[in-house]
Amino acid sequence: MTFAILVGKIHWVQTVSARVSVMQAENKSMFHPAASVEVLVIGGGVIGSSIAYHVARQGRAVLVVECGDVAREPAASWASAGGIRLWEQDPPEAPLALSALSRWPTLSEELDADLGYQQGGHLMLAENEAEAEQLQALMERQRALGFADLSFVDRQQALCLAPGLGEQVVAGIFSPSSGHADPRLTTYAFASAATRQGAIYWTGIACLALQRVGDRIVGVQTERGVVQAEQTVLAAGAWTGELAATAGIQLPLKICVLQALLSSPAAPGILRSVLTATGRAVSLKQRADGAFVVGGGWQGDPARDGCSYTLRGERVERNWAIVRDLFAPFRTLHRLNAWGGLQAQSIDDLPLIGSVPTVEGLALACASWYGFALAPAIGRSMADHLAGLPAPELEQLSPQRIDHIDPARVAAFMAAPDI
């Protein structure tokens, strides 16, 4: 680890530690079992904290219970690579993505915090003519969903956006509204903004079981006693399915592990855009300190305890090799770190956001592959949904759809080995 990276890391830890101390101090006087609360959010990650912020902003009483820190290892809010590249959407998620894209440019000002946000665009590459044709078709489909800023670029235009691309790159799609941000800073920013709006945070307190009376969820049993709630939101990421099961609710969710890699620093600013490739599993973004974060959906293996993981060395190496092939400036760098993040994966690879149809008083917000980038929109839409207001962005993501999935398909999904 170089001295520059070490100093940057120490500064980041000091900043985050200060934010945690402020949150704990703000909530210390309220740190007691609540007899009743309007809205209970289980999970203080970026999605849970965004929901809490938007609910509190409506003037409703909200309590967030988080078993660790609000951006704890190895939860997705701690581990995310931080990409805000939302135009690669299936139609059901497109309305949320469009809403989120409109929020990110002014979100730092709204939350009064540095999010590490950079709007440098997203460049998806094609490495041969067949892939270029696929990109053309993808662009037209995404434009039809409302992503109007997409443009097709040839090799020379791609090189202007990202000098140093491999010789095999022939074309790309560019979206200037995309970018990336720091997931941990963003999570703390939402949590801090939520507390300023009146939300209460219990951190380091585990939720043991949902409290069910008949066909209604009435709260949760925590390490500090029972909390009763008019509405309970499960936003516990990878652990959502486990908590739902304590009330006899079986969700078609599995825990998956997404790997991320960190490079040594290069000169800051040599890559402004997020880079991906249509034919290979890779994403690349450069942080302000010059280091690169590498992702792309490569999966590790969750442990039996559901709280830890292992990465596969060959997948780490393959992910790294793809970037070296695509982006020449990367070839002089070395790998500093590799980590994984746990998240929930649904049976149809779409998030579950909205009320659970089989019981009253319970809503879900989990299992989005783009959860970090969508968080501003998920929070606002869920707050409206909980308040009984229209939330059209959630219509196609409702948990109601799981009632119509063949039980045999669910059983096969749950039993299938990890990829």
Structural write-up:
The strands form four sheets. Strands 1, 2, 8, 9, 10, 11, 19 and 20 form an eight-stranded mixed β-sheet that branches. The protein is 34% helix and 26% strand. It has two domains: 3-79 and 184-254 and 348-415, FAD/NAD(P)-binding domain; 118-178 and 255-345, D-Amino Acid Oxidase, subunit A, domain 2 (D-Amino Acid Oxidase, Chain A, domain 2), CATH 3.30.9. It contains eleven helices and 20 strands. With 419 residues, the chain is an alpha+beta fold.
Short recap of the structure:
The protein has 419 residues and is of the alpha+beta class. The chain is built from eleven helices and 20 strands.
Q: In terms of topology, how is this protein built?
A:
Elements: H1 3-28, E1 36-42, H2 46-57, E2 62-66, H3 76-79, E3 83-84, H4 94-111, E4 122-126, H5 129-144, E5 151-154, H6 155-161, E6 171-175, E7 179-180, H7 183-196, E8 200-203, E9 207-213, E10 216-222, E11 225-234, H8 240-245, E12 253-263, E13 274-277, E14 280-286, E15 292-295, E16 301-302, E17 309-310, H9 313-326, E18 335-346, E19 352-355, E20 362-366, H10 371-386, H11 407-415
Parallel strand pairs: 1-2, 1-11, 2-8, 4-13, 11-20
Antiparallel strand pairs: 3-7, 4-6, 5-6, 9-10, 10-11, 12-15, 12-18, 13-14, 14-15, 16-17, 19-20
Helix pairs in contact: 1-7, 2-7, 2-10, 4-10
